[in-house]
Write a structure and sequence with these properties.
single chain; 2 domains; two-stranded antiparallel ribbon; two-stranded antiparallel sheet; 4 strands; globular; EF-hand-dom_pair
């Protein structure tokens, strides 16, 4: 409603619509809605001028990044593999003018995030850093 505040109900509806393509039209997975509920309770604020608890823009930005991570952590393991991280970061990019697929988003991670077999295990902390750097250049 453009009041600068997002209630829990507004967040649920907005995230369901925003992430529908990434969820194959099946709605937000249970682990995402559960994480959203917890994150909202941790970050929501209130004041005497507004009867509901809400998040404001700074709190929303972190909440959005957390939900983006959770949506692409489809198996709820607490990390993203390379393909999942690539999809999450590409989700932030606008569609190309020609309507084609979004190009890969280049990113680098420290060796400590890779298994001995060379598989990426991108944790939330590192994803948040990538989100801040890559996301701000795409929005």
């Amino acid at each position: 409603d453009a009041d600068g505040r997002l209630t829990y109900e507004e967040l649920c509806a907005g995230f369901a619509e925003e992430f529908e393509p990434a969820c194959d039209g099946g709605g937000l997975p249970a682990h995402v809605t559960s994480a959203l509920s917890r994150a909202f309770e941790e970050r929501a604020i209130g004041d005497v001028a507004f009867q509901h608890r809400y998040v404001d823009k700074p709190r929303f930005n972190r909440l959005y990044a957390e939900m983006l991570f959770k949506v692409f952590d489809r198996r709820n393991r607490g990390y993203l593999e390379h393909d999942e991280a690539q999809q999450a970061l590409a989700f932030l990019a606008p569609p190309p003018p020609d309507g084609g697929p979004k190009p890969p988003v280049p990113f680098a991670c420290p060796p400590s995030l890779y298994t001995e077999g060379g598989e990426l295990r991108l944790t939330w902390d590192w994803f948040a850093m990538l989100y801040r750097s890559v996301g701000s250049s795409m929005r």
